[in-house]
Amino acid sequence: MSNGTFEPRLVGFLCNWCSYTGADLAGTARMIYAPNVRIIRVMCSGRVDPQFVLKAFKEGADGVLISGCHPGDCHYKEGNYKALRRYKLLLKMLDQFGIEKERFRLEWVSAAEGVKFQHVCNEFTEQVRKLGPLYLSKNGGKHEQREA
Amino acid sequence: MSNGTFEPRLVGFLCNWCSYTGADLAGTARMIYAPNVRIIRVMCSGRVDPQFVLKAFKEGADGVLISGCHPGDCHYKEGNYKALRRYKLLLKMLDQFGIEKERFRLEWVSAAEGVKFQHVCNEFTEQVRKLGPLYLSKNGGKHEQREA
Amino acid sequence: MVNLTIDGKKVQIEEGKTILQAAAKCEIKIPTLCYHPVVEAYGACRVCMVEVTVRGKTDLVTACNTKVQEGLDVQTGSERVLKARRLNVEMLMARAPAAEPVQELAKALGIEKTRFEIKDPQEKCILCGLCVRACETIVGASAISFIERGTERKVMPPFGEPSEACIGCTACAYFCPTGAITYEDKYGRKVIHTELHLGPTTAIRVPIRQAVPMVPLIDTEACIHFKTGECKVCTKVCDREAINHDMQDETLEVEVGTIILASGFKPFDAKRIPAYGYGHFPNVITALEFERLVNASGPTGGKIKLADGTEPKAVGIIHCVGSRDENYNEYCSRVCCMYSLKFAHLIKEKTSADVYDFYIDMRCFGKGYEEFYHRLLHEGTKFIRGRVSDITDMAMTQREEGKLIIRVEDTLLGTVRRIPVDMVILATGLEPSIDHNQLAKIFNISCSQDTFFLERHPKLAPVSTFSDGIYLAGACQAPRDIPDTVAQAGGAAAEALALADKGTFALEPVTAEIDEDLCAGCQLCVNLCPFTAITYDKEKGISVVNDALCKGCGTCVAACPSGASHQKHFRDSQIFAEIEGIFVV
Amino acid sequence: MVNLTIDGKKVQIEEGKTILQAAAKCEIKIPTLCYHPVVEAYGACRVCMVEVTVRGKTDLVTACNTKVQEGLDVQTGSERVLKARRLNVEMLMARAPAAEPVQELAKALGIEKTRFEIKDPQEKCILCGLCVRACETIVGASAISFIERGTERKVMPPFGEPSEACIGCTACAYFCPTGAITYEDKYGRKVIHTELHLGPTTAIRVPIRQAVPMVPLIDTEACIHFKTGECKVCTKVCDREAINHDMQDETLEVEVGTIILASGFKPFDAKRIPAYGYGHFPNVITALEFERLVNASGPTGGKIKLADGTEPKAVGIIHCVGSRDENYNEYCSRVCCMYSLKFAHLIKEKTSADVYDFYIDMRCFGKGYEEFYHRLLHEGTKFIRGRVSDITDMAMTQREEGKLIIRVEDTLLGTVRRIPVDMVILATGLEPSIDHNQLAKIFNISCSQDTFFLERHPKLAPVSTFSDGIYLAGACQAPRDIPDTVAQAGGAAAEALALADKGTFALEPVTAEIDEDLCAGCQLCVNLCPFTAITYDKEKGISVVNDALCKGCGTCVAACPSGASHQKHFRDSQIFAEIEGIFVV
User: Fold this and answer.
1) Which residue(s) pair with D286 in the sheet?
2) Is B30 at the interface with chain C, CB within 8 A?
3) A81, C289, D261, D562: which one has the fewest Cβ atoms less than 10 Å from its Cβ?
4) D109 at the B interface (CB within 8 A)?
5) Does the beta carbon of C488 lie under 8 angstroms from any beta carbon of chain D?
6) Contact present, C487 and D491 (Cβ < 8 Å)
7) Which of D337, D338, D365, D481 should be substituted to probe chain C, the one whose Cβ sees the most C Cβ atoms within 10 Å?
């Protein structure tokens, strides 16, 4: 929390072949973007277990991003479609936990889309910043300390 | 003999490694130069037997050019030095035949010197043109027919 | 074999042949007009009339469609033959006085003028019907036919009253012996560039001069046979019987260890920039068309000609067409500057035309390139720095009359200029090849923002892709010129060789594994796996992973309801630890 | 091993060590001024005074040069010690009141002012003599020494009255504990760029970060040991004893089948263009120096600084320095545009300076290059098209005061401009490596007009040379950037692999042969052959050619007086026929 503004803590699950390479491109091209998204690499967005998302929120994430290859471009044929289906289910589930759907996002970022990755990071950070910190009712201990 | 001007017939003995490649460069770079020099490729200027030069004059050449690598650059270490020694001897010999020394020329042209090759050809052609056709006293039959 | 005598010469020929063919065999010339070897003879013009004697009986017949007989005696120049031929020619002269072949024939026969009435002194059609027969039997279109009778009889030409059956093959004009049929573009011009096509000129052809193997192919889009089912003229003239219209594309399966993609580029479609008038002005041509025009083995024999066949007095070359332009392609196509300079040099060499070169930056970066540019500067090419806004034929001064006017902001002069020229060459940029995206999908490789294939690393692995064993060569990865392509393709070959030499290939060790004790045998994973790497072991009642087939996506792991499926190196516990690690400040 | 007690702590240490070293071992700090681990201790400053008791006898000694003894009991902070130390420090304060380490020591000991007379309040030298000992025993130059005695005693510094023995190593300044010795350039400025050298900073160093093997080397030009025979400080601190000053360059003979030349380039020497003031203006630096400056592991930690250590407010980058210039190199160096753009981007990223980029043509030809240029245009770098004529520090307006003024004809504005900046980066071009011509001779390969190695064919054989088996990779053939070099070098590797794989090598079949019947045995050819391929067969009395050694120059053939020597494929008769052929019109 610098200058009093709330800096959201975001977790991004990025597939190895498209989004992770896209993020790498953003880096090598020295594009400046919000550093709030901490990246966890998975081989495929289809690997993202719903538990990972819940775990991230539980540990203190204010938002979670899943990013995979564009539909039709999956390195493993259709893992990203699986991710999409799980994403929609998870959205409903998160609602039951009282977590706003704006805190959870699925994006398609190809290896060439360094600029798109930059935009997604900046936009998502801004979006979650507006929502403010996430206080989970049952396990909010950690969060209470994070007030601005 | 076009437009009434005398077009000398010149023979050029070019070494394979420097001058022939230089001539090739002049060609691939589409440099325009006097087409009077007809090229005979030898592996080294050291291969040019004095007989070749005499034969060329006998057959009707108005001038003879030998072209090899620059001193120190010979692909065969020192063949061009041999050529230089023979050239000097031959000059004296040609004098005895009544052949002007301006009709016989030794030049160093490297593989990179397409422009130099162009200049040598143009210059030598002009030089021999000024001298006019070569009439060999004893075997001049062919030459008499070549008057402008 | 049949034996016969023609003008006293004995000749032997296969049964079924005609007298005309027999005469050709013993080099006796019989005049013809409506005869063409690939079209069935009809004897319409009747100038091939000869006198035949068989078994004592003498008769006048048309040589083109009269078959030989044993013992036949033929006279091709007897008084009777000549008399009949003269009459026929005189009638043809009356019918088609403008037909040059008829005039020549008349001259050879000593006829000065026809005694019959000339209806139309401009007429060229002799009503031989060769066009009609060709259109029917060769082309198979039957788009033209005779109409009316007697002196009103005429052929309905395809372009006069366009017929829906006409496929525009122009075979009628090709076969017409008197040049009575012509074809023109819709403006009534004979356009040389279009006529010569500046590209493939026939439907059967060797695709390029450097083709390997060096054999012709049939362009099924252009071939008449594939439009109408007829023609096959090529098979009739090929004495090796090498042409087969029934060949089909074959799908071959070849097992390889490494793949080098070298799918190249396609030139930018100049029609996408309407302001440059390509396709509208016949003298606005693309770089590739100019290459064809200037090629010594091309349609003009290397002569630089305008659409009307004359030599241009001023030529404009426009760089960066479709390149360095946010509306089309943002990237630089790398090769256009140098080929444009080559063009300028060739035009200077072959014509006395003024050459204007419109550029943004002169990108002469390679070995000897700057030196070449320097030479051009001395040769007198006029270099104008600025992007051309448009090309128009609307003259504002007399000097611009009949010219193409190039409008450009000269950034060095800081003013807008109008440059009148006769020919404009568009230096079209490079785009990935036509089936580029499909290839990317097939080989599971990515494209960069410029849509060319993405290399694994621009510096460390410039010819590799993210799919191991698949390498990139040439312009499919990025535009590049020939020297750079040859060198870089060598790099791809070296990578492929190195891998082939090693012989084995290490898979990523991130495969899935199923814990036998935890697996409930629900088979959810079996259906999820896109690589059929998971099978159900009926005996044990559990799912089993085939390590060689598993590519390690981990989809099954994320889906396993009993937590029996794990992905090596991406175990749940490992990822949980990563998540926790993030929040340890 | 020796056992002793320091301030009650027991410590064991090797015999021969000093009390100071023993105290360091048990982490007890004893103050020092004139002590340095690599210089023999002398006890000059006497602030390391401690009280020692051995065999009942107590004494005050200097810890730095008193060796340990078995059973020694040391007190470092006893009243007696502190009293003695205070006295010493007070005397030092009088001698060198400006010496900061003395002031700190005094403060730690609670001394506010000295009771002795201060001669010179600016004095920093405590006359410890560490510099003298270092210069004598470490550097081996003995360029400085004490002069005079008593209160007039002083050290003669090397720059005050330059000594011929001084090698300018600045070791004295390095060792001086109070900063009493400084060194300055001849203008009296402390020049950061020079101080940091923006290049190799020490005589022993890892040559480049990417060095293979990753080990340091000794620069014998810079190493003090190779100047004076002394120093070897590096060997004293290297506990692996890995440093050997006696190693010599070795000549190794390696037999190989193919050779790839990758001798690279050297940057154009910016001093050759005096108008740009490189070497004169400290803030005019070359591209390579800027790379060093901006490198995160470089001397400034990646901070962009002027010579005076401040951040520039305006930076000019000049393209084509030594390239595209008939006075230096006509060719384009291919890489400078892109690295200049990178510099502009880095300056924008790291400072708030205005960046001016002076170019002729912006050559962004590679993959993603144009896009990068486009980004820079949006970032606010000011691009000025024109060649810079000169750089001056002669201000004409107040705004130019203290600045470097870049004079340039802005070809887009059509006017001469003066741009004041703080720093100028010269985008120096590429030239063949230093021993390029010698290499060309050794490997018998040609150079092209631009002096880079000549490839066999620019398109068909871009990595081959005219000498079979010798290939070219990288900038020795022509300037090129990293992606192009990596790809092209792969091409050279592929060629070499292909040849190595084949294993054999076909010689040109143009060798000489000697006709036994004609050879007179004069042996002229034996002496002429540059390859000793001809030997004299004494038995037969003739010369004999060794086919494997003969390279086919034909010199022997041209010289043979009896016409016995022939060159295959270049026989006299063949060349005569060629000559005759020329004159058959």
Assistant:
1) D426
2) yes
3) D562
4) no
5) yes
6) yes
7) D365
Predicted ipTM beyond 0.85: no
The alpha helices in A6-140, defined as continuous H runs, are: 19-28, 50-59, 79-96, 114-131
Q: What's the pLDDT band for C187 if we cut at 50, 70, 90? A: very low
Distance from CA of B30 to the nearest CA of C (A): 9
Answer whether B52 sits within 8 Å of D570, measured CB to CB. Answer: no
List, for residues D234-258, the tens digit of each pLDDT value.
Answer: 888 888 899 999 988 899 999 998 9
Question: Among D374, D459, D498, whose Cβ lies nearest the Cβ of C483?
Answer: D459
Q: Does B116 touch chain D (CB under 8 A)?
A: no
N-terminal to C-terminal alpha carbon distance within chain B:
7
Q: Which residues in D lie closer than 8 A to residue C498 (C-beta atoms)? A: 497
The backbone region for C77, taken as left when phi is positive above 0, alpha when psi lies in -120 to 50, beta otherwise, is alpha
What are B48-67's pLDDT values in tens digits?
999 999 999 999 999 999 99
CB D518 within 8 A of CB D562: yes
Full 3-state SS string of D379-444: HCCEEEECCEEEEECCCCCHHHCCCEEEEEEECCCCEEEEEEECEEEEEECEEECCCHHHHHHHHC
Q: Which are the contacts of A58, defined by CB distance < 8 A and separation ≥ 6?
A: A136, A139
Please state which of the ranges B82-86, C346-350, D498-502 shows the lowest mean pLDDT: D498-502
Nearest to A93 by CA among A125, A129, A64, A123: A64
Q: Does C447 touch chain A (CB under 8 A)?
A: yes
Nearest to residue B86, comparing CAs of B38, B136, B52, B123?
B52
Instruction: Provide CB contacts within 8 A for A127, sequence distance 6+.
Output: A63, A102
Helix, strand, coil % (nearest 5) of chain D? 30, 20, 55
C487 CB within 8 Å of a chain D CB: yes
The alpha carbon of residue D386 is apart from the nearest alpha carbon of chain B, in Å, by 29
Q: What is the pLDDT of residues B103-137, one digit of tens each?
A: 999 999 998 889 999 999 999 999 999 999 998 75
Bridge partners of D515, per DSSP, are none
Token representation of residue C287: 């770089």
In DSSP notation, D44-105 reads -S-TTEEEEEETTEEEEEETTS-B--TTEEEESS-HHHHHHHHHHHHHHHHH-TT-HHHHHH
Q: What is the pLDDT of residue C480?
A: 94
* CA C381 – CA C373 distance, rounded (Å): 10
Q: Calculate ∠ Cα C196-C201-C205, nearest 5°.
A: 155
Smallest CA–CA distance, residue D354 to chain B, in Å, is 44
Chains adjacent to B (≥3 CB pairs closer than 8 angstroms): C, D
Chain D residues within an 8 Å CB radius of B42:
554, 570, 575
**Residue in B75, B82, B115 closest to D528 by CB:** B82
For chain D, the C-alpha Rg in angstroms (whole number) is 35
Tally: H helices and E strands in chain B:
5, 4
| Angle formed at CA D443 by CA D437 and CA D446, multiple of 5 degrees | 60
Domains defined along chain D, listed by start: 2-108 (3.10.20.740), 129-242 (no CATH), 257-505 (3.50.50.60), 512-584 (3.30.70.20)
- C352-374: buried (b, 16+ CB within 10 Å) or exposed (e) per residue? ebbbbbbbbbbbbbbbbbbbbbe
Which residues 81-110 of chain A have a CB within 8 Å of chain C? 82, 86, 110
pLDDT digits (tens, 9 = 90+) for D16-48: 999 999 999 999 999 999 999 888 898 888 999
pLDDT in tens, D383-428: 999 999 999 999 999 999 999 999 999 999 999 999 999 999 999 9
Taking CB atoms and an 8 Å limit, are C497 and D495 in contact across chains? no
